[in-house]
Amino acid sequence: MNFSEVFKQSNQLCKVSPDGKYLATCVQYRLVVRDVSTLQILQLYTCLDQISHMDWSSDSLFILCAMYKRGLVQVWSLEQPDWHCKIDEGSIGLVSSRWSPDGRHILNTTEFHLRVTVWSLCTKAVSYIKYPKACQKGIDFSRDGCYMALAERRDCKDYVSVFVCDDWHLLRHFETETQDLAGLEWSPNGCVLAVWDSCLEYKVLLYSLDGRLLSTYSAYEWSLGVKSVTWSPSSQFLAIGSYDEKVRILNHITWKKIAQFEHIATINNTKAVVYKEVEKRPAVGSDDLSLHNITIGTTLFNTQSKYEICPPPVQVPVVKPDPDRANPKIGVSTLAFSSDSRYLATKNDNMASVVWVWDMQKMSLLAVLEQTSAVRCFQWDPRRPRLALCTGNTKLYLWSPAGCVSVQVPTEGGFQVQSLNWHCCGETLILLGKDQLCLCDDEKIGGNTPLQILNFTC
Amino acid sequence: MGEWWTTVPVGTSMGNYEISSISHVTMSPSRQNNLVSMQSSLPLSLRSSYNGISAFCTEDTIPQCISYINQELDSLGLSSTCIEASSLEGADLKAVPALNAMYELMQIHRRNMCTLEELEKEQLKKSSTLDHMQMNNSRLKDQLELSIREKSGLHETERQLHLKIKTLQSCLKTEKDEVQKLQNIIASRASQYSHDAKRKEREAAKLKERLGQLLVDRKDRKLAIDVLNCLGRSDGKRSHWKTTKATASHEGEMYTSLLKDYEVSQRSLMLENAELKKVLQQMKEEMIHILSPRRPTRGANAVASQEQADSDGEEKAGDFSRETLDQSCEHAREQLTNSIRQQWRKLRNHMEKLDSQASQVQNQLESNKEVIPRETHEDEMERMRHEVQQCKEFIHAQQQLLQQQLNTSFDDETAALLNDCYTLEEKERLKEEWRLFEEQKRNFERERMNFTEAAIRLGREKKAFEEDRASWLKNQFLNMTPFSDHRRCSSSDGQSALSIKSEPEMRMSSTKARLVTSSTHATFSTPKPTQSATVPSTTELYRTLRLIPDSSSSRHSNRGRWQESSSIEDGDIRVKSRNRVRCGDLSIFSLGLPGSGRPSTVLHAERLAGPSAHRCVLQHQPFQATEGLLLLVKPLHSLAFILMLQGKVDLNTAPHAKPLYCHGISRV
C-alpha cells in the first residue's frame, strides 16, 4: 500500500472529479486542483472568502465553491482558468448549494428554506422554487439526471414535486401521506421514489415516477421510527434502518419485508465472523521513556493493532442512550450497500465501534468488525466488494470477504483519519484528517498485501 | 370368712354398713321385698342386741335366735334347711341342718365375693374409660377452642383484605381517573401542540412569504449572477421554449421511462418464471420417474392396480400440464397447482410407505440379526465339510490309481529308460555347473591378476609416497628453519603441485605409452623385482581390503559386480582404465562408481593446463576440482587424492580406489 505525502485541506473539502482525473481541495479560501495520478497542482483558484462547500460538476469541467456566510457561490472552469462566475444570493442568505445533474445549473437553497434558486450558467436565467421543506434530505436527483424530486411544505402538508431537470418543468406535484416528511430518495433505476416520515412515526411510502402511491410500509407504531433509508444499487432492495436497532429489507416487487437484520449485543451466530481489533502497544523499555522520546515521536503513542477472530458468543459493547435527550444515540443510522449489491454494511449508534456486514444473498450476518473506538465513516469500494472504514485514529481498516486488515497510515505527525473517500476507479482512497489529506494507493491490495495473507478467515 | 369376723369388732358401724351394702348387692331383686320387710322388722331387735351386748345369741335366746335365723334363712330362700334345736330347750343344735345352712351361707358368701370382685374390676375398667373419655373430651374442647380462634382470625384477615380491596379499588379508580385526566391532558396538549405548530408554521410560512415579497420588492441589488460568458448546454443542444408540446413530450418521456422500467421488470420476472417453470417441470418429471418404476415391482401387491391408475392419471396430468405450461397462465395455473398438489400428495404417501417399510425391514433386521449369521455360518460349515470330504475322496482315488499303475504297468524296460533319462539330465546339469564353475574360476583368476597388479602399484606408490613424505619433511624442516619466505613459497609451490620427482619423465613416457594400448599394459602390470620387496603378498592385500571371499556365494556376488561393470564398459575401456594414464596438458578421467554401476554416475576429472587447475564433473555437474575429488577420495588413502590431482590417476597406483570407489578410470 502506498501512501502519498500529506496535503493541507480545510473543512474536509476534498473531492475527486467524476471522471476520476482531478482532485480538488480547499485550503481556506483557495481551491487547489491536482492531477490524481501525479498529484501535481494543475490549477489554483482564489475565492472571495473561506470556502464552506465545494463540488464538481457532472462533466468534471467546473467546480462550485460556496461561501455560505457571504451568500456567495463562485464557479471555476478547469478548461478555461480565466473564466469565472459569481453568484450572489444577496441578503436572503444561502444554506446549501449544489449542481444540477447537467452541470449547467446551480441550485441554491436560501436561508430559512425560503426558496430554491436555480441559476442557469447557460442563459444567466434564474428561477425560483418555493416552499422547499427543511428536512433530512429534501432534494434528490434521479441517477440518470433526468428528474429532481423536491420535498415541499405547504399549508402544513407535505408535498413532493417532481421536476424535469432539462428545463425545470414541473412534471408531478402530489401530496404525501406523511405527518412530517423527513426525506426522499430515488431508486437507482429512477422509477420509484422512497419517501419516509420523521422519526416520530415509522412510515415509508413508495411512489412511482408519475406520482402514484405504490406501497406503504410501517413496521410498528408508537415508537421512534425510521432513522436511515438506502436503496441497493440494483434497485432490488430498500434497506430501512430504524430506532429499534433493526434493518428491514423491502423487495421491489411486492414492497414487503423480506428480511430483518437485528443488531443484538450478543452475537451467537456461528456463521458470522467476528473480527475484533486488538491494540498492541509496542514494548518500551523504561530507559526509552525519556523526555526526548516523548517529545519527538508520536510513534511512541502509535499502537499497533490487528484483528483477531473471536469465536461466538461475542458480547459487543453497548452504550445506553440517554432517554431524556432528543435524537437518542440508538438505532441504525448508517446503511451502505456494496457496489454489487451483495453486501450491506450497517452501523448501530449505540454500538458505535461496531460495523456489521450482512450477506444479501443469504440474508444473514456475514461479518462483524469490532473496533477499539467509535467508527467515524465507512465506504464501499465502487468496484469491488471491499469496505474501508476509519475510526478517527491513525489507521485505515479494510474488510473484504477474504478477510480484514488494519493499516497504519505512515505519515509524520499523527495523521488521524476522520473521513475517507474512494476514488471512482476503486484503486485509490482519499483519507481526510482534520486539516490534512492523504492519498492511499492500494493497487497492491489485489496482489499480495495483508488482505490476501489474511485469507485464513474463509 | 375369718377376715370378715375379725373386721367386725374393729368397726361395727362400718361392718354394718358393709353388710347392708353387701346384702343390697347380693340380693336378687325378687328377694328385695322380703329383705325390706325383714329389715324393718329386724332392726329393733338387732340394734338393741348390738347395742346391748356383743353376742347375738345367748343361752336364753337360742330358740328366738333359731327362729330368727330360720326366718332369715327362709328369706334367703334356704327354706329346705331348717335349723332345729335338738331339744326344745336345750342349747344344742341339730348339727346337720346348721352345718348345711352354714355351708349354704358360705356358698352364698363366696359367690357374692366373686361377683363383688368382678364388679370391682368392671368398675375400675369403667372408671378408666371414663377418664379416657374425659381426657378426650377436654382435648376436643381445646381443639374446638383453637379452631374457633382460628376462624375468628381468618375472619379478621378477610375483613382486612376486604378493606384493602376496597382501598385498592378506590385507588384504581383514582388512578384511572388520573390516567384519563392525563390522557385528556395529553390529547389536549397534542392538539394544542399540533395546533400551535400549525399556527407557527403558518406564521412562518406567512413570514417567509412576506420576506420573499419584501426581497422581491426591494429588488435586491446584490442578488445577481456574474458570468464571464455564458456556457453552452452540456448536451450541446439549444434550450427549448416552454410549450405545451414540451410538456407533452416530458410526459411522454416519463411514461416511456416508466414503461421501460416495467418492461425490464417484467422481463426479469418472466425469466424468473421460466426458470421456475423449468425447475417445476424437472421436478415433475423426476417425480414421475420416481413414482412410475415402482409399478412393475409391486404388480403383485393389492394396491398395485390402484396405484397404476393413479400414476396413469398423474402421467396424464403431467402431460397435460406440460402442454398447458406454454398456455396462458390463467388457465394453466389451476391445473398446474392441482397436479402438483396431487403429485406431492402421492409422493408423500409413497415416502411414508417407504418409511414404514424401512422401519419394518429394520425391525426385522434387528430381530434376525443374531439368527441369520448363525444359519449362514452353519451352512457354510456344512458346505466346507462336504468339500473337504470330497477332496479327501479325490486324493484317495488318485492314490489308489497311482498304486495300481505302479503295481500293474511297471516293468524293467521302462524303469531302465526312466533311469537313463534321469542320469542324462543329471549329466547335463553337472556340465552346466562345471561350465559355470570354470567361468567363475576364470574370473577369479583375472581378478587375482588385477589385484597382483594393484599390489605392485601400491608398492610403487608407497615408495613414491615415502619419497614424498621425505621431501615434505625436508621442506617442513626447511620451513621451520629461519630461511627466507621466498624459499618457503617456492617449496610449497612445488608441494602443491604434488609432484613426484620423476613426473616429467613419466609424462614423457606416457605420451609414448598412450599409443600402445593393451600390449603395454602387460609390461606395466608385471611386478618388477625391485619393487617386489615392498609389495605385500596378494592374500595379505586381499585380507586388508577384506576382499577375500568367505564362500563361493560371496565370490559369486563379487563376480557379478565385475560382470555388471564389464557390461557397462566394454573390455577395451577397462583395459585402458587399468592403464596408467598420464597426460601433460589435459587429462580427463571417468570413474564409474561401483555402488550405482550406471554410466550416468561417472565422475569426470579434468586437469587443465597448469598444475593446480582441476575440474571434475559428477553427473554432468562441474565441481570445484579439489572439493569434488576430495569428496570422492577422502576416505581413501591420501595418495590417491594426490595422484589424481597430479594427473596420474591410476588404479594400479591407487589400489584402494579401484575396488571400492572407482570401478574403472578411463580416459575420455
TrEMBL record, chain A:
Signal peptide: none annotated. Gene3D superfamilies: YVTN repeat-like/Quinoprotein amine dehydrogenase (2.130.10.10). One of its GO terms (cellular component) is MWP complex. Pfam families: WD40. GO terms for biological process: lens development in camera-type eye; retina layer formation. It comes from the Eukaryota. This is WD repeat containing, antisense to TP73.
UniProtKB/TrEMBL annotation, chain B:
It is found in: Cell junction, Adherens junction; Cytoplasm, Cytoskeleton, Microtubule organizing center, Centrosome, Centriolar satellite. One of its GO terms (biological process) is intraciliary transport involved in cilium assembly. One of its GO terms (cellular component) is adherens junction. Residues 130-217, 351-394 form a coiled coil. It comes from the Eukaryota. Belongs to the ADIP family. InterPro entries: Adhesion_Centrosome_assoc, Afadin/alpha-actinin-bd. This is Synovial sarcoma, X breakpoint 2 interacting protein a. Pfam families: ADIP. Keywords: Cell adhesion, Cell junction, Coiled coil, Cytoplasm, Cytoskeleton. It comes from Sander lucioperca. The gene is LOC116046247. Its main location: other. Residues 295-321, 485-509, 519-538, 546-566 are annotated as: Disordered.
